[in-house]
Amino acid sequence: MRKTNSIRTVKLRGLKPAASSPLERHNCILPTGLNKVIPVGGLILCCMLAAYCPQARAESFKPFRGEVTSEGINVRADATTTSEIVCTLKKDEPFEVVAERYGWYKIRLPKPAPLYIRKDMLEPLEGKTYQVSKENVNLRLRPNESALILGKADRGEVLTVLEEKEGWYRITPVPNSFAWVHAKFVRKSEAPEEIKAKGADSGALKETPAVLAEEGKEITVEGLVKPKTIKTIASHKLIIRTGRGKDLYLLKGDRAELNTFNSRNARVTGTVEYGQNLEYPSIIVTKVEALD
Q1: Which segment of 27-41, 48-62, 69-83 scores lowest on mean pLDDT?
Q2: In this structure, which CATH number among 2.30.30.40, 2.40.290.10, 1.20.1560.10, 1.10.10.10 belongs to the domain 64-111+180-196?
Q3: Cα dist. 74→89, 110, 247, 289 in Å?
Q4: Considering just the CA atoms, what is the radius of gyration of the chain in Å?
Q5: Could you name the CATH architecture of 209-290?
Q6: What count of other Cβ atoms lies within 10 Å of the Cβ of residue 57?
């Protein structure tokens, strides 16, 4: 009778039925031959194996701001030394580390990295700023369709164009574009919570006490409407210039309607909302009027 390969989860002797082992919690499995009852000390082995489960690593990893420890460190398109080089980093050059895999760090593309978008995917706004006209547009390493994809851009997102090349635009890297650096060349430059405080949105601005005092009130404010690059809470933001500098509101409303005001000065009416877990105050938009 021909043998077939199979895989089974490890069961630990002495554990209560309601409890699950580290392996079971993280869906780790062992090949046939290791599925026997584990004797005393086996729990240590299970914990060690669980540490190598992708889900366990993902749950324990915390993003942080990092920097490389030497000059000319390669940034690569994937987590392997054979993958294509995206750019090189100078010593102490900062970047955001968002994930880890097999001794490599996934980072947001640093400023020196080349990033291209097809020219026909953008609409001009003002100066070097352009707006993405299509959904889920690929951002590539080089100006051709066969180049590696390093990120994505959504309709309404505003990009900064650096140069034009063969029907493509080279743009400033956006938050939703990534590459990899070997972990042995990276050190932390600040605490993970500081990354969270700054937010993934590179245009984020800190709120002021005056803004916080307006919670729950209906207000009308004027400012510059911009699409947010990460739209988990709101699709747009309103930047207001004041005597103190700048204030910021997140705009919650009809995304299609708000898109028509991208990069325009507008008068926004709505109710202010500020929750404990919200980094910036929001406006539940009821009315928008263009000022330009």
Answers
A1: 27-41
A2: 2.30.30.40
A3: 7, 12, 38, 48
A4: 24
A5: Beta Barrel (2.40)
A6: 16
* Separation CA 177–CA 112 (nearest Å): 13
pTM reported for the whole predicted model: 0.50
pLDDT in tens, 230-276: 656 678 888 876 554 567 788 888 888 898 998 888 989 888 776 54
- Is residue 150 within 8 Å of residue 109, measured between CB atoms? yes
Residues of the chain with CATH 2.30.30.40: 64-111+180-196
What's the rounded Cα separation, in Å, for the pair 268 and 290?
A: 9
Evaluate if residue 9 carries a pLDDT over 70. Answer: no
Bridge-based pairing of strands 282-290 and 245-252 is: parallel
Q: What is the mean pLDDT of the chain?
A: 74
CA 57 to chain centre: 18
CA 179 to each of CA 61, 76, 84: distance values in angstroms, whole numbers, following the listed order: 17, 6, 10
Q: How far apart are the first and last CA of the chain?
A: 81
User: Measured in whole angstroms, how far is the alpha carbon of residue 24 from the centre of its chain?
Assistant: 29
Spatial distance between the Cα atoms of 113 and 109, rounded to a whole number of angstroms: 6
What's the rounded Cα separation, in Å, for the pair 189 and 39?
44
Contact 153, 48 (CB under 8 A): no
Q: What is the tens place of the pLDDT at every residue in 141-194?
A: 999 999 999 999 888 888 999 999 989 999 999 888 999 999 999 998 854 444
| CA–CA distance, 183 with 1 (Å, rounded to integer) | 48
Contact status, residue 58 vs residue 102, Cβ threshold 8 Å: no
By CB neighbour count within 10 A (0-12 exposed, 13-18 middle, 19+ buried), where does 113 fall?
Answer: buried
Q: Give the distance from CA 91 to its chain's centroid.
A: 24
